[in-house]
Each structure stands twice: as C-alpha cells, then as structure tokens.
Prior knowledge:
The protein is of the alpha/beta class. It has helices at residues 10-13, 15-27, 41-57, 142-151, 160-174, 184-194, 200-208, 212-224, 239-245, 292-297, 317-326; strands spanning 30-34, 62-65, 94-98, 116-121, 133-135, 226-227, 232-237, 267-274, 279-286, 301-302, 306-311. The radius of gyration is 20 Å and the shape is globular. The chain binds adenosine monophosphate.
Amino acid sequence: MSLPKPIRDYGKAHGAMYKKIYSLIKKYDRICVFRHIKPDFDAYGSQMGLVTFLKDNFPNKEIHYVGDNHVSFAGRVYPVMESLPESWFETPFLALVCDVGEHDRIADPRYAKAAAIAKIDHHPCRAEITDIKVVDLDSASASEMVYDLCANWRGKKISYQAAWYFYSGIVGDTGNFKYRSTSIHTFACAQSLMEKGIIISDITNCMFEKKIDDLKVTAYVLSHFQVSPHGVAYYYLPETVQSELNITSERGKDNVNLFANIEGIHAWCSFSESTKDNCWWVSLRSRKEDISKVAFKWRGGGHANASGARILSLDEMEPLINDLDALFADK
Ligand code: AMP
C-alpha cells in the first residue's frame, strides 16, 4: 500500500526490519501484544490496533493482549485486558511490544519469557530488550509506526476496527494533531486510516467524553495552580484532594494541558500522590524546550515535549520545578 508522499518513507527506511517482524508473526501461532504501564491512548491504540490486525489476518493464530487497565478508558474506549494464566507463557510464543522501550515500563513482565521479541517504539531507552525493533524517536506516535508496519504488509487488510484504534493512538500522542512532533507522515497515516471508513468525530468524542464531575477537577486545578518565576505552571493533587474530587492518581494529569498556549508559560506539569506506589507521579509538558532531561533526572523519561517522572515526597516538588525553571531563565 502506498501512503501519499510522507517525509520519511517508513516502508523503505525500515523495510528489512519489517520483513523480519512479518516472518516472526508468520512463524509463531501464539502471540501476545504488550505495551507500557499506565496506558495512554497511544499505548492502547498501538496495542489494540495490532491485536485487531493480527486477529483479522491470522484467524487461526492465538492472539492475546495484556497489561494494566486504565480507570476510565478500559471497557469504554478500549477492551478490558485479558488475564492470562502463568501456564500460557510456558509454551513458546512471540512477544510484540508497542510504545515502550524500558524493561521496567512494560506492563506485564512475562514478555521476557517469549521465544522471540519484536518492538515498535518511539521512546529513548537505556537498556535494549531486543535486536528486532523499529525505533523512531521523532515519530509523533507509536500507533502510526505500528500502522505503517501493518499497512506495508502486502495483501493484508486493515479493518475499520483496527483503523479506529490506530487513529485514536495518533490523536492521543499528537494532542489531536497539535504537537510539534506531528509530521506529514502522521497526516498521511490519518488520511489512509480515514479511507477505512472511520468517522473521526465519533472517535474523538468517545476518547474525550467527560462527566460533569470532571469539571470540578478542572475548577480545582484552575484555582490552585502556581507559576514559577520563569514560566513553569504546575499543580499538585494530594490523595485527600483526589478523594474529594473522586479521582485516582492516574487521572491527576488529565488537566495538565490547560496550560498549553498560555502566553509566558513555557512548561507545565502535574504532581499526583499515590501512596500505593509510594511516590507522586509527575507529568511534564513543554512548548518547545526539551524537558526529558529533567524527567530522566527525576526517575523518569519520555519525549522532548511530553515526559513522565516520579518524586518520592512533596519535598522534591520544589527542586524539580527549579530544574525546569532554570531551562527558561534566559527566555
Ligand atoms: P505521562 O505524563 O505519564 O503521560 O507521560 C508522558 C510521556 O512520557 C509518555 O509517552 C510516556 O510513555 C513517557 N514516559 C512517562 N514516564 C516515563 C518513564 N519513566 N520512562 C520513559 N518514558 C516515560
């Protein structure tokens, strides 16, 4: 299948690796698809798009998907994950890993029991999990990479449902085609996915549907955020506040992008307490500056303009904000 003139023609650039992955898929009758913990739209979209593509094209293979469930997406936007027994992983299988590079961020550690592992990802990674991989740090989403892998496989079909999932992942990681990482390739994939019959407004309505109570969370954030001297906006949600607002820590970052496109704000972040994980989860975003180095310093990682980190107590919030603030001292 030919996509309309993308800047980088993945099919050509990654052709040899695509063929290796196709051979592995053909070879194994038992396949499990993995993605990162605390799934966002791109993690789910790339995983479930690939699962659907495999089920559609290889009805006789056993195709599975595992991982943690998102409190509001699971069962509404994407299926609830399967619970596979330990015994399933004892017979040889292929692990396909989407949207994650680091071993400790893969949502089910049993991927490591696989007879073969292939990875498609757009995150920087410290320690590699496999040689069979397509990694593009500049790609806006893993979903468009996985879609490209599937779309370039001659003779295979991409169903409406697979297209729906891939599109949702692209929308998620590009902020609906707004972020700097959005490329001609992203739009080429979106066009090609629309040709499968998806109705894009139905997808975004489903993804971003809010409840009246969600507005109370937004109201809280708008009345409690702070701004550092050089333009870092931030808010924090202790568990006491989360329970008043009827949310869990994974939803603490839902409002972080309220601070995008505000004059004088260069970066923005949220801090959400999780006593279960013994930390505060941090989501960092920026307009232009690479904030991933700050995320790495604070036990995290991610992309130049969207990263995640962890602090061990609220005492670490100020030093982290100071690190971010220092990036903008001369702006
Ligand atoms: P979040 O703020 O959790 O939505 O994360 C923003 C982006 O950073 C997503 O692409 C995550 O996959 C990525 N990310 C978050 N935490 C980490 C980490 N510890 N290591 C690598 N990437 C991360």
